[in-house]
Amino acid sequence: METMRHWIAREHLHMFFGGEIDKDKIIDLCGLVNPWSHNPGDEQFDVLKLIDNYISILKQREQFYL
Question: Is 63 strand, coil or helix?
């Protein structure tokens, strides 16, 4: 777990987590409540929310690569 935390920090991926870097803190990018089961065939799958969240994450990560 510690190796994963170092990799996430090094690659600037902390914005995928709700605060603490922990597997239980991964944010739900498409609004299905469970970030572990994103199925585009699910009628509750919110593509627009997913795209908005991806854009937000890309904007946050942009600061590390400019």
Answer: coil
**Of 19, 48, 64, 4, nearest in space to 27 by CA:** 19
Identify the pLDDT of residue 40.
66
Give the DSSP letter string of 13-47: -GGGBSSS--GGGB--SSSSS-TT---TTSTT--H
Q: Tell me the C-alpha distance between 3 and 66, whole Å.
A: 26
pLDDT above 70 coverage of the chain, percent: 91
Amino acid found at 41: G
Percent with pLDDT over 90 in the chain: 42
Phi, psi of 2 (to 5 degrees): -65, -40
* Least confident stretch, 4-8, 11-15, 32-36, 58-62: 32-36
Q: Are 21 and 3 in contact (CB under 8 A)?
A: no
